[in-house]
Amino acid sequence: SGNTMQVLGSANDWYNVRLPSGASGWIANWLVSVITAPASPVPPPSRSDDPGGRNAVVTGSVVNVRGGPGIINSVVGQVYQGNTLPVLGQSSDWVRVTLPNGSTGWVAGWLVSMQTAPVNPTPPTPVQPPEKPTPVPVDPTPTPLEPPGNQSGNGSTTTPNKGNVGKGLSLTVNSTGARTNTVIKTSTSCTFSQSVLTNPDRLVVDLKGIEPGNLALVTNVNSQTVNQIRTGHFQRNPDVTRVVFDLKDGVLYDVSISSDSKTVTVQTYIPDIVGSYKGKIIAVDAGHGSPDPGAIGKLGTKEKDITIDIAKRVKNLLEARGAKVIMTRTGEAEIGLYRRTDIANAARANIFVSIHMNANDNRAIGGTSTYVHNGAKTTRVQESERLAGYIQSELVKTLGLRDIGVKYDNFAVLRTTDMPAVLCEVAFISNLSEEKYMNTDGFKNSAAEAIVKGIGRYFVEKRNA
User: Fold this and answer.
1) In angstroms, rounded to a whole number, what is the distance separating the alpha carbons of residues 252 and 179?
2) pLDDT in tens, the chain (465 residues)
3) For an engineered disulfide with 168, which of 74, 213, 294, 452 has Cβ 3.0 to 4.6 Å away?
């Protein structure tokens, strides 16, 4: 904690960074915060006609040129594969170059090949970029270096297209209520791959063997499911056009292709989660109980009282939607940890949700977190992660507290259940403002509704998987 490292590049939800040792490596972006580096003196230009002068030959398909070394600096232009650029200086893995139009900028060193320039070279003839070059959006940044796995989503891929390169002809959007239908037409047959990115939610569709053609860079949608659609020329040789759907919360999707492989249809929709509860057995566990009150706030609020109140509201909401609810604690009396999971296991509950309030000696700390078992990645633990993700998302959105995220621990109620299990630390009872908040009906109703909605989203995705 506290290490400051230079950002060298990024891919999906990972940053390529310069370590204190001087080596480079990849780190998850959710474990760091990016700050703007203070301006550093630009190295003095090296004359290209001096002995030992260097040129940078662009090896990436389309490479962003930035105003300074590092991806935190703004994009000021683009260069293309084959461009030969006189080198003016270097900072870590970034190279300062002269662009074909005479201006200067910085390019990533891993996207160019360094060559020694002749002593008195003839001024290079600028390599002209393709007509109407398409800027590369933020998400589709080409990265020849692969990060250690895609931790941000899941995906599927069809067989690559070996045919002639085609063009995008049109992208049309029709929205009706909670469903948005997007149709992409191409001039030749193509194949596609799809993947999902989170924080924020995005659906990525790659059209293989296709240039962007007539497809707009940005299509503002503002439907119930999609904010906007962005396209970019993600890759050349072979050509890939990337289409990114910026999704709203709780959206599912379906991507299909026509029999002639010239029309890709993307349907995004908000599922009717009401029907997803029917017939499900849900164990709801209110943390603590007399004589163990749990944590106690500065105002005297006892954790056990808040958890049982929210648990009962969750029960009422779930039963109204057709679920069967098993309460591990219904009154004041404390129930042993193993007895709680015995009750859930005996009832063959589909899921187990434990409700708690958090506490910390530092009373300034606040926020919401949801825990799953830190054991081996069994199917049960993986399902627990999915359930926790949905509940955590709804709690943060509904309560407006700091998002601490999905965490891992060896809590007994998570370790000894037979079904997917989560433990919600809804808010900090040790934080005075959050203690006041949790004593309101608004907080309790919102927390209960968020937990119930998260459960519904989990069952909907499981039903549609």
Assistant:
1) 10
2) 677 877 776 655 566 777 776 666 777 665 666 665 554 444 343 333 333 478 888 876 667 888 887 766 677 778 877 788 999 988 777 889 998 878 899 888 877 888 876 655 444 444 444 444 444 444 444 333 333 333 334 444 444 444 568 999 999 999 998 899 999 999 999 999 988 887 688 999 999 999 999 999 999 999 999 999 999 998 888 899 999 999 987 788 889 999 999 999 999 988 777 788 999 999 999 999 999 999 999 999 999 999 999 999 999 999 999 999 999 999 888 899 999 999 999 999 999 999 999 999 999 999 999 999 998 878 999 999 999 999 999 999 899 999 999 999 999 999 999 999 999 999 999 999 999 999 999 999 999 999 999 999 899 877 554
3) 213
Our answer to whether residue 425 is catalytic in this structure is yes
Multiple choice CATH, 155-270, 2.60.40.420, 3.30.460.10, 3.40.50.300, 2.60.40.3500 = 2.60.40.3500
State pTM to two decimals. 0.52
Q: Catalytic: which of 425, 434, 435, 461?
A: 425
| CATH entry 3.30.950.10 includes domain 275-464 | no
Q: What is the DSSP letter of 302?
A: B
Residue ranges, CATH 3.40.630.40, the chain: 275-464
Query: How far apart, in whole angstroms, are the C-alpha atoms of residue 447 and residue 400?
Result: 11
DSSP H or E stretch at residue 404: strand 403-409
- The CATH number of 40-116 is 2.30.30.40
Q: How far apart are CA 54 and CA 77, in angstroms?
A: 21
Ranges in the chain annotated CATH 2.60.40.3500: 155-270
Amino acid identity at 453: K
